[in-house]
DUF1963 domain-containing protein (Microtetraspora malaysiensis), 343 residues
Amino acid sequence: MARTTPPRPVDIAAVFPELVPLARRAVRLHPRPGRPTIHESSIGGPLLWPADEDWPACSDEHDHWQPPASLDDIRRRRDLLEAAWLRPRPSHENLLTPEQRAYLDKLEAGHPPHNAPNPLLPVAQLYLRDVPGLVGPKGADVLQVLWCPLDHKGGMPTARLIWRDSTDVQKVLTNPPAPLDVDRFGHYVPEPCVLHPEVVTEYPASHELPDELAERLHAWGRAEWAELHPDDEQNNGSAYYQFEHSVAPGWKVGGWGPWSFCDPWPMNCDTCGSEYRPLLTISSGEWDGGSGSWIPLEDRDHTGPVGIRNPSDPPMVQIGRGYNMQIYTCPTSFDHPHLEIMQ
């Protein structure tokens, strides 16, 4: 099923013409539970990987502030909790039996870190045919993103980008190595999802606008909010533009950065000095209490049990305390190092 973002409450570029030249196309990926194949775009799905090509691994130092877990233990934990939440039970009955609780505690205890390179985990596979505007090196028709599912410097995983020509893959690797260690609660283990790409128009977050324009947008937002919510004595509309009219939440390609708890800073390629451009946003959720207007029309009347998978976060990925991990690339060369930041 396609996903359709509702029109923005206001045509913001008509109200503030200064925003017109700042418009950017973003592609909301709308990952949803599924069983993607190696020949499809996906989040957390299998990759089209040549059998004769080494699978990448991470030898960096990891931030083991808590014991890691195994990939199998994360899947067992999710299966246990999913079944428990979907099981009909009286309101006074505990979610887990004593035996299940003990088993869950064992799964969540983790294990000592392995002292060996950690095989990477697939995060995304994006065929250029499915993502309007996504362009790779000459001849490449698919972008593959993998990461080490442990905290590194900055409190995030570290990602690897692979561009390839799918027609060059003759014999496929069918059993890639799994990570030895993943983060204890599986925050960096994406559940397999199929994609429903949708093009939307974005404008910069107020953090990236000239102060004078940002102040006018804040004032306009407060006035609009007060009219729409006359009972809100706090008048929380100063972020109305930010949440409703600028940057789309969720997993996406391109667009603008979802600045939140920190301000923008100059981000330039160490190799050539070019200004980085957003490539991929990995999100902890497609909507929350402050971005409900972005909920796709097809997801607004959700009914029935959902288990442990939040409808706004089908991949079950969490970055930090519910933030975004954004991958930036150099517009000059695909061979230049990319940049990863938390926003």
